[in-house]
Design goal:
Chain A: InterPro entries: MetI-like, MetI-like_sf. The complex is a heterodimer of chains A (about 300) and B (about 400). With about 300 residues, chain A is mainly alpha-helical. Chain A is about 75% helix and about 0% strand. In chain A, helix 9 (about 195-205) runs antiparallel to helix 10 (about 210-220). The chains are: A mainly alpha (about 300), B alpha+beta (about 400).
Chain lengths: ~300, ~400
């Protein structure tokens, strides 16, 4: 709203009464298409989903529902699928952590050390987007397969418990980490690239060695990028079902996304449960993100 | 602090060369800055002055040569190991820290328990204690500059490096900060090395000025001395303005060399000539030159005696500056010379572009530098204005 007021004032102030009048409704007119889009494709489906999540089954007619305020749907969904929620948050958290560990050095190298290779590195990060997400995830099955190089090497070294990577949580986390890595790299790169290298030099000039400079200057300065990157990785990863479907096992690695998918498309009469799960997941992520941003956020995001 | 090197004494730069690929930024530089002095490195952009500063800070390592403070060799040590602090041109304040935390950064790294109190004292020194809780983004350019100075000063470094710290400020604030910096330097008594391309800034603040060009020091000395007697054509033009003309030494008359410049015979004190025979660049400062309607008739009526040497010229442009009037005159060789006449009389001298005049000066003020490799700029100043005037005259 403050942005709106600013636009209005900026346009209206120096001009005559005519333009001032136009200036007051012009921003709203420009906002209209976006607002309409949001209402039709976001607000209405959301309300619809919420009403579905409270529906009750028609006794005796499987697949039929009636409008209700059945909050028990939430309770049963939560109790029955609590492990899946746990896994979703855990896997997403792990993937975010690993993506951060991989992305930060990469973004740092691109911002400060890459020189003329910077463009090429950027292309390498973005290029995988040109192929299908599903195909790339399937490719990981080959990479992590029992006869693949990774599993073979680890087995040779006797450091792989169980002897498999695929069908375990490791494969799911690896897939999630890989698929969302660019969303971590790009915001961190943007925030590092924007930073004045002199500021990092100033750290050294003021008696901080390389590590201390990184801890007290570089990392805090790139926090907006880290924050954006972790959110962009964690949120979609928590709701993802493709990686668990293609790389995980049928039982022990299913995430909430897989449950929602099967409840919607495979289980007869699963609509209210699926909707309740979706809503719960959304609320859970919102709450987590809120706490997270409150704790680590800068003024730029809140 | 592991690795921190205590060192006291003069800063000595010995035969330092810095090469970036094929480009030699600093070329066999040797320099000694006495402890506690205000030293200015003056030069155009790309002359190697900032590279020199960065090598003293440890942000660049010299290709050859040594950098010492007192008897401690600092060559090869890291920036955080040196008792040297820098005020960066862009200030480089930490954007995520408050002003107080910015200033306390250095003392904290050095393990001082009362870092915050030290920071507050330093802010007191730059007269900003009331802004300690703000973030750098909430400060004006001048305030940020002071914080940058405080952040460096609080560490009481043996040498404080200032990399064009006033470049981003407007003229009035710059003047104010020049006085301020000089006051602080006198108060704390540290060695200041100030890098600037602004000759006026260097002259007003520094005890010693070194003029750099192409990675070498052209001339070094107290500002007044350097202004009075430039040793090279570059210095003559970079430090203030000079009227220069190609000439040739033809003989000697007592303490003076006699030279032929644009067909006029002039005298140069032998002690003020960088060369003693052959081709020279003859020079005289604009304010030392006076205008006359006729030979040996000085218009400046406050002077009772004729000034000595003179030359025929044509007025090209007259601009009234206030305390003085600047005349651009064309001399016999076609070069444009500049003349400052103080506005001492109530009646202004009535000279118009196109008027023939004589320019006169006291030979004691003349100087000569080597002609070899020197270029005379087209016009001392107001280059385009001269051509404009010419256009309108023709």
């Amino acid at each position: 709203m403050s942005a709106l007021a600013h636009i209005g004032a900026g346009q209206g102030a120096p001009a005559g009464p005519d333009t001032a009048k136009r200036g007051s409704w012009m921003p709203y007119l420009l906002l209209l298409p976006g607002m309409l889009w949001l209402i039709v494709f976001f607000v209405v489906p959301l309300v619809q989903l919420f009403t579905v999540s409270l529906q009750s089954k028609f006794p005796g007619y499987p697949g039929y529902y009636y409008r209700d305020l059945n909050f028990k749907n939430y309770w049963s969904a939560l109790t029955e699928f609590a492990p899946h929620f746990g896994r979703s948050l855990l896997f997403a958290g792990l993937a975010t952590f690993f993506a951060f560990c991989l992305a930060y050095p990469l973004a740092y190298a691109m911002a400060f050390k890459a020189g003329r290779w910077r463009g090429l590195m950027m292309i390498c990060i973005i290029a995988p987007f040109f192929t299908s997400f599903i195909l790339r995830t399937i490719a990981w099955r080959q990479i992590l397969a029992d006869e693949g190089p990774v599993a073979k090497t680890l087995n040779f070294l006797h450091v792989l418990p169980g002897g498999h990577i695929t069908e375990t949580w490791m494969a799911v986390v690896a897939g999630l980490t890989y698929n969302f890595l660019p969303f971590m790299v790009l915001p961190i790169y943007a925030s590092l690239e924007r930073a004045d290298p002199r500021i990092i030099e100033a750290g050294g000039d003021l008696y901080a060695n390389g590590f201390t400079t990184f801890r007290t200057v570089t990392l805090p300065m790139s926090m907006p990028g880290v924050l954006a990157g972790t959110l962009l990785t964690f949120i979609p990863a928590a709701g993802d079902y493709v990686n668990a479907e293609l790389l995980g096992s049928d039982r022990s690695t299913k995430m909430v996304g897989n449950v929602i998918e099967s409840q919607f498309f495979k289980v007869p009469g699963g609509y209210p449960t699926a909707a309740a799960l979706s809503f719960t997941l959304m609320a859970l992520i919102l709450a987590l993100v809120f706490v997270y941003v409150r704790k680590f956020g800068t003024e730029e995001l809140l | 602090m592991a690795g921190f090197r205590e060192a006291t004494g003069d800063l000595r730069i010995e035969n330092v060369t810095k090469e970036f690929g094929d480009f030699t930024a600093v070329d066999d530089l040797t320099l000694s800055v006495p402890r506690g002095s205000f030293f200015a490195l003056l030069g155009p952009s790309g002359c190697g002055k900032t590279t020199t500063l960065r090598m003293v800070a440890g942000l660049e390592q010299p290709t050859r040569g040594r950098i010492l403070i007192g008897d401690t060799d600092l060559t090869g040590s890291r920036p955080y190991e040196r008792p040297v602090n820098t005020v960066f041109q862009s200030y480089a304040l930490f954007p995520h820290l408050t002003v107080r935390d910015n200033v306390a950064f250095g003392p904290k790294r050095r393990g001082h328990k009362d870092a915050t109190r030290m920071a507050d004292e330093a802010l007191e020194l730059v007269q900003l204690p009331h802004l300690a809780a703000r973030k750098p983004a909430q400060l004006s350019g001048g305030q940020q500059q002071r914080v940058a100075v405080a952040r460096a000063l609080v560490n009481r470094p043996e040498v404080l490096l200032l990399d064009e710290p006033l470049g981003a400020l407007d003229l009035k604030l710059r003047r104010q900060m020049q006085v301020e910096l000089k006051r602080i330097q006198t108060e704390v008594g540290l060695t200041f090395i100030h890098v600037t391309h602004d000759q006026e800034e260097a002259m007003t603040m520094a005890d010693t000025v070194a003029v750099m060009n192409h990675g070498r020091i052209e001339q070094m000395g107290p500002p007044a001395q350097m202004y009075d007697l430039p040793k090279t054509a570059f210095v003559a033009n970079f430090v203030g303005q000079s009227n220069l003309g190609h000439g040739r030494i033809t003989g000697r008359d007592g303490d003076f060399f006699v030279a032929d410049v644009h067909g006029s015979t002039v005298k140069i004190p032998a002690a003020r000539s960088a060369v003693d025979s052959g081709d020279i660049l003859f020079g005289v400062r604009p304010e030392k030159v006076h205008l006359a309607r006729d030979s040996h008739d000085v218009i400046d009526r406050t002077r009772k005696v004729a000034l000595g040497d003179d030359m025929k010229a044509t007025v090209v442009d007259v601009s009234f500056i206030g305390v003085a009037t600047q005349y651009l005159v064309q001399v016999a060789s076609g070069a444009t010379w500049s003349v400052y006449e103080q506005n001492l009389d109530v009646d202004p001298i009535d000279l118009k572009p196109g008027d023939p005049v004589w320019i006169e000066w006291d030979p004691a003020h003349a100087f000569a530098v080597a002609a070899e490799g020197a270029e005379i700029p087209a016009g001392p100043v107001l280059g385009d204005r001269v051509s404009m005037t010419r256009d309108t005259v023709s």
